[in-house]
Amino acid sequence: MFDAINTIIILIALVSLFITTFIYFKNPKDKVVSAFLLLIFNSTAWTLSMFLYRAAYYKNELFFFSNILYFSALLLPLSFLNLVRKLGSEQKERINRIFYSFLFLTSLYSLFSFGLFERFNLISEVFRDLNNSEPVIIFNKLAFLSYSLLIIAPFSIGFWRMYQLYLNAKKEKKRILYFFIGVGILIPASISMLSNLILPYFQIVSLNWLGQLSAVVAPLVVLYGIYKYKIFNFELFIAEILIVILEIQALIYLLQSESVFSLIASLLSAILIFIIGSWLLKNIKKEHKINKKLEQKILELEKLNTHVKDLNRKKSEFLSIATHQLRAPLTVVKGQLSMLLEGSYGQMNDKMQEAVKKIYDSVDRMSITVSDFLNVSRIEQGRMRYNFKNINLNELLFSIYEELQDLAKKKGLEFTLDICPELGNAKMLVFADYDKLRHVIFNITENAIKYTKSGFVKISYCSRAGKYAHIKIKDSGVGISKDEIKDLFSKFVRAKNVYGVNVIGSGLGLYIAREIMHAHNGRIWAKSKGLGKGATFFVELPFAHAKESEDGNQDTSKQD
After folding, report:
1. If we measure between CA atoms, which residue out of 180, 162, 196 comes closest to residue 72?
2. Which among 510, 485, 509 is positioned nearest to 495, based on CA atoms?
3. Cα distance from N-terminal residue to C-terminal residue, the chain
């Protein structure tokens, strides 16, 4: 009987076999793939035996093919158990003993129930009911009980072992593969036990072909896992399948050719498909190799990045400890030198005072450098402490201007502070850490004076869009090249032309200034027309919101 169900069964058997064979040829030496192929071969044999069983009409044919059907089904749990034992290395001896025990029991059972001893046969009788298109099987109850145990027990042990492998798998790809193999086999196994074992025992045979239809789930689910998680080159696999199908189709047309013209056309088509297919496969393989190399490089870069981050963290911790240890003795030395200069320990002659003054200046510069390193360490570790409150920006700028006037006069520079007329003497509030903000603007202005031999340094301040305080420090100094200005706010960066003016400097000041402005929701940047043409630094931060009280304050980070 060749009906729609039998047609579907044949197609499923061929599709399952086709897919699995292709998977096998991708990894012919892989023991797991070989075991999976054996399982699908057995499944295909079981599916084909259902086709023959349903197609049989005479009683002796029905009896023969029904025995073949149930014998081939008996091999499926053994094939699955064989696959499971190939998957993992842990408890291998134990699972091997279980496998060989069931292999022996199955062989012994088959000898009795499908062989020499008729009284122990699994199937007592099989016939076609005129009211039912499906044959009806009468089982030997004792043999059926043994048969059921030989089906259920290996499957249960196999699934339990598969679950353990899934839980214990260290590599993500293995976990994924175990999951898809387990699910892909569990679904058809469950359906098959119901439709081919349990229901036929109660003479419900109308759905006995469902198990065979569900057999296609195993290769399809595993195939989906391969595609989804790229267990091997899926694109190449699909391309090979399509090319093979096209080649087969071209050969069929070639064999069916009825004229010389159609023969030549079919032959040319087959050759063209072969050439294009070969070229396509070659390019896919090449692309796959490149992608594999890229993936490998990305993994190496990720490892390197993790290593660099770890080194950076250790470096920051070292800087923090080192600068803390250096700052304390420097503070003591600086304090004692200051007392010497003030005459606290008695008067010194001019030469002594000049020498002590040089030492004091050197210690002061070293103290500033140590403070810079300590601030960088705090910033990188997220331990920079800010005490935010509403401050009057006019007063802050004026105090900086007053403090740096003497330095500008000594260099003969024009030094001015301009506030936009529309602001006048209004009290302009910003929500900021007074000391940190002052440090930023003071350092930029002091540097502008240091790096300007003649000309001017101008501080100007105005409002932008009524929302932001916009501060500009402009000078006629050494200027900055276009190539250097983009990296000016990075760590350990100083413009090359400043070394002739001021050799001392850590290259951290502008980096610290940038990070401080980020913490204030503000920004800092610089512009210059080039070397020798001066530079302009901009500092911008939002005005204090109306909801923030004038005397409010906020500590936003951890203490050292």
Report:
1. 196
2. 485
3. 87
Return the bridge partners of 416, or none: 458
Token match 């850490």: residue? Answer: 433
Q: Are 1 and 57 in contact (CB under 8 A)?
A: yes
Average pLDDT per consecutive 10 residues, the chain (560 residues; last block may be shorter): 71 71 65 77 84 82 86 88 80 85 88 73 79 77 88 89 82 71 79 83 78 72 60 59 67 69 76 76 74 81 84 69 69 81 81 84 76 72 84 90 92 89 68 91 91 92 83 91 82 59 64 89 91 91 63 47
| 3-class state of residue 96 by DSSP | helix
Full 3-state SS string of 178-223: HHHHHHHHHHHHHHHHHHHHHHHHCCCCCCCCHHHHHCCHHHHHHH
Alpha-carbon distance of 113 to 120, in angstroms, equals: 5
Q: What is the pTM of this model?
A: 0.45
- Find the length of the chain: 560
Structure tokens at 209: 């072909």
Residue 252 contacts by C-beta under 8 Å, 6 or more apart in sequence? none
Number of H helices, E strands in the chain: 16, 10
Report how far residue 265's alpha carbon sits from residue 257's, in angstroms, rounded to the nearest whole number. Answer: 9
